[in-house]
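User: structure tokens for this one?
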Amino acid sequence: MEKIENSLKQLSQIWQKFQIEWYLNIYKSKSKEISFTPVWDEILVSEDSDINLVLNIIKNNKKLTIKLNSISYEDLCSKIEDNLWLLDVWTADSDIYLYPVKNILDINEIKFDIDEISWDFLLKQRNKVKNFEYASNISIEWFSYSLNVDERYFINSLWAFKSHKSSQNTYFLWLYYNTHEFSDTEYEVFYSSNCELVTSDFISKTQDKLLSKINPQTSKLNSWIYNVTFKNNLAWDFLDILLSSVSWEKIRQWISFIKKDDIWKKIVTDKLNIKSIHNIDNSPFNRFFDSEWIDTEDITIIKNWVLSEIFLDSKNAKKYWKEPVWNPTYANIELIGDKKNDFLKNSSFLFTNLMWLHTIDYSTWKFALEWEWFEINNSKIWNFIKNVSISWNILDLFWNIESFWNDIYEHSAIKSGSITFKNQQIII
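Assistant:
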């Protein structure tokens, strides 16, 4: 990227030449991936390198966005000269202005050189999965192993310059169980900022999750009020729904269950405290600046059951006469508070999977979903039930949190363990 950085030094001249406010986003990515589909004994190998530039020009509260494939100063000037007249065509939009980002920030979190990692290394990871001794009736549905290096650059007419270079390793295993009586699938995913080896423990964990479901039963319990637990990989999905509503844009448009008057009111149980941490060592989910290039910082989003901070972009900050708070490209989300060891204790159902999460009604926050669950007796898994339809309200869930558990699910920007909700109506 030395060529890009040298070219960027020329860009300050654009201000003198055109007297416009502007900012330039540059995204460069490089990737290697191998995927394996054993049904056809098929291997897909891909390698990609891509660069994408987006120039935004602001004049008289009008905005022009131009996508480019060259970083040269001459090409940028040519594009501006060709299109600048468009900013005098439409009525001015008072929401559009350049937030005064002025600082310099250069972060390098690249942990490996992708060009030095051979295809033989990726094939060895595939072979570990392929040659693993699986239990009877279990086969590989799909496996993928990928390496990515991303570089993001930003520069504006105030001569702010920011960059964030990062690496990510992801591998995904999807297993299939099949007999004449029963079939099902299960998967596991792993994220890291380092280049990691696929381990036997990772494969065994995926297989054990699938084996625990191979003998589904009819329910032995009756419809009633029960405590229920969402497994960690499911709990973070619901926390993500909550966090997606913590946005001034959605509140202003009335598409959030949170209203403007609710911001300093109790919106969830007092057991729930959530913090966003912008930088954790070796996390692939770090964010040092947001999509508007405002520097991020650690913020406590929910504290003592109320919103203590809220994602506020510059557009809505202007509407409400406030300063922006870096907006919803949230980083490492952590639940703050006491976490218990046994997530099956005092619970009757363990929910592990669901379908149709996208069908939630965002006006009422009700949902009707298809679930898989384990019935629990004396803190032990007793009975697996498949394809159960459940109808709930998300707000009722967050008002009725009983406890959090310390089985943290690491493979997401949201670091959550399993969550137990009390007094939920179960219809069987």
